[in-house]
Write a structure and sequence with these properties.
With 131 residues, this protein is an alpha+beta fold. Helix content is 25%, strand content 37%. It folds into 2 domains: 30 residues; 93 residues, Ferric Hydroxamate Uptake Protein, Chain A, domain 1 (Beta Complex), CATH 2.170.130. The radius of gyration is 24 Å and the shape is globular. It comes from Acutalibacter muris.
Length: 131
């Protein structure tokens, strides 16, 4: 009877240990949200010239990915990041310059922080004059 109790306790302990290891092993995995994606961005400068950038990222949203790559800088506002500098050029607000975000050639309907990165989409930042 005592051997059976020892075996039962040992089996329970082994099962608990196995479950703990499984849980901690799962904590290090991203569950798909950490998958690398490729993001392509075309920057259109004031003179009309363009420059293409391609990055691999695990970010879900465009803004944080481009900030971490140091392509953009800006100020946090009530609607998220207001982009002021792209590819080293800072807008001149006195001339009503601003960076327009596009997705597949169309003006984005979301801010850069809330624009999801989707494989195959073409993103653009276009220096625009006039509000």
């Amino acid at each position: 009877m005592q051997n059976r109790t020892i075996c039962t306790r040992a089996a329970a302990l082994l099962l608990a240990l196995l479950m703990t290891v499984t849980v901690f092993a799962g904590c290090g995995q991203s569950g798909g949200s950490g998958d690398k994606k490729t993001v392509s961005v075309t920057v259109t400068h004031k003179d009309g010239s363009t420059k293409d950038f391609t990055y691999e990222t695990t970010e879900e949203m465009l803004g944080p990915a481009l900030v971490s790559e140091k392509l953009i800088e800006g100020e946090e506002g009530q609607y998220g990041l207001f982009v002021k500098t792209v590819d080293g050029y800072t807008v001149d607000e006195s001339n009503q310059e601003w960076w327009c975000l596009t997705v597949d050639g169309e003006t984005a309907m979301t801010g850069i922080d809330s624009t999801p990165i989707e494989e195959g989409k073409k993103y653009g930042l276009v220096l625009t004059v006039g509000y």
